[in-house]
Design goal:
159 residues, five-stranded parallel sheet, alpha/beta
Length: 159
């Protein structure tokens, strides 16, 4: 099974990029992992809620274009269901057992994800009720995916 992390925005700061690259390198022995970065759209200072929704919808259209019909999609949202590391590992294992060809985790832009993406998502996942910078959230997700693969492989990983 292939796993993709699809996100709005680029990892611009070198330490985040280095950490993400390190986890992607570690993950490569477990299967095909890919990181897909899409450009974030400029956000107008003082935009109305309606303008913000339009922006999220436009970003969402770009995200949705990168999905394939058989993808299982997990959207990262603050109100999504929180999972422990073993629960995430179990969910990934179940997707593999069910023959899912690609599991896609989506991280939205600074405003979050539009309703168009949330409707397409098969599940929502929260890293925490706290809000994290997108760059850190992506690195944290990659680390958790690595931890999940280690759990599934029956290998030791710090708790």
């Amino acid at each position: 099974m292939n796993i993709a992390v699809l996100s709005v925005g680029k990892l611009r700061e070198k330490p985040y990029r280095q950490m993400a690259d390190e986890y992607l390198k570690r993950l490569s022995r477990f299967g095909k992992y890919e990181e897909i970065e899409l450009p974030d759209l400029p956000e107008r200072e003082g935009a109305s809620p309606a303008e913000e929704e339009k922006l999220k919808t436009r970003e969402g259209e770009t995200l949705l274009q990168r999905l394939r019909p058989g993808d299982r999609v997990i959207a990262l949202t603050i109100p999504g269901r929180q999972r422990s590391s073993p629960e995430l590992a179990w969910e990934i294992g179940e997707a593999k057992n069910q023959g899912v060809s690609r599991l896609v985790f989506i991280i939205g832009g600074s405003l979050g994800l539009g309703e168009n993406v949330l409707r397409r998502a098969d599940a929502e996942m929260s890293m925490s009720r706290m809000t994290f910078p997108h760059q850190l959230a992506r690195v944290m997700l990659l680390e958790q995916l690595y931890r999940a693969e280690k759990i599934l492989a029956g290998e030791r990983y710090h708790k």
